[in-house]
Design goal:
heterodimer, A: alpha+beta, 3 helices, 9 strands, B: 3 helices
């Protein structure tokens, strides 16, 4: 799953990751950021493009750089790096749009066997958290490393 | 004379990962992905926290 991915730079605290997507639309810097939220030990997974002019990050951009699988694999690899250093962290991921949430769901579905070797993954239905199942529409995901 | 040993903290990194000391500073002034952080807080406040142990057992039982 994670073999075809981009080189990644990380901050010393392993909370911020940066890599460059290369494709027909050019070189686009992507940033993944794990931010601790109000509940101790829970981190939001933020992911977006760096604006080449302002340097600000945008998570609503649709890049279409023909490398979505490679980008998803790279984001997943940051999860391994992050949880290796924060083994008790729980990560919450929500797509910034419904399409992006669907993309996350497809990425998890296509690699569920591999992911479940190392992580427990839950999906949010309308009312509650449940173990991730294929072909179910979820609004958010929770991930925790198996200890 | 006592000599102090320099402490080095070795990070666990996958291959193709490199630590860039300036990276954290680059985004220090931006409230990164604030909307998503707010949404995550809202979800966990309204839906509640999961019981990972119970759901994991349930998941294992399914397999």
């Amino acid at each position: 799953m994670l073999d075809d991915r981009y080189h990644v730079d990380t901050s010393p605290d392993l909370l911020t990751f940066e890599f460059v997507s290369v494709g027909p639309k050019g070189n686009i810097t992507k940033v993944v950021r794990y931010t601790e939220i109000n509940i101790k030990g829970f981190y939001n997974l933020g992911f977006g493009d760096k604006d080449p002019i302002t340097g600000y990050l945008r998570d609503l951009t649709v890049t279409n750089n023909s490398d979505s699988q490679k980008v998803l694999s790279t984001v997943a690899s940051t999860l391994y790096a992050f949880t290796a250093n924060y083994p008790n962290a729980t990560i919450i991921a929500t797509g910034s749009t419904e399409a992006r949430t669907r993309l996350y769901r497809m990425g998890i579905t296509n690699n569920l066997t591999d992911i479940e070797k190392d992580f427990v993954i839950l999906g949010l239905t309308e009312k509650t958290w449940e173990p991730f199942r294929k072909n179910i529409k979820y609004g958010a995901f929770l991930v925790r490393k198996k200890l | 004379m006592e000599t102090k040993k320099k402490k080095t903290v070795k990070k666990k990194l996958p291959k193709d990962f490199k630590i860039n000391p300036s990276l954290g500073d680059n985004y220090a002034e931006q409230p990164l992905f604030k909307d998503k952080v707010d949404r995550a807080n809202h979800i966990l406040k309204t839906v509640g926290l999961p019981n990972f142990e119970a759901t994991n057992k349930k998941s294992t039982a399914h397999n």
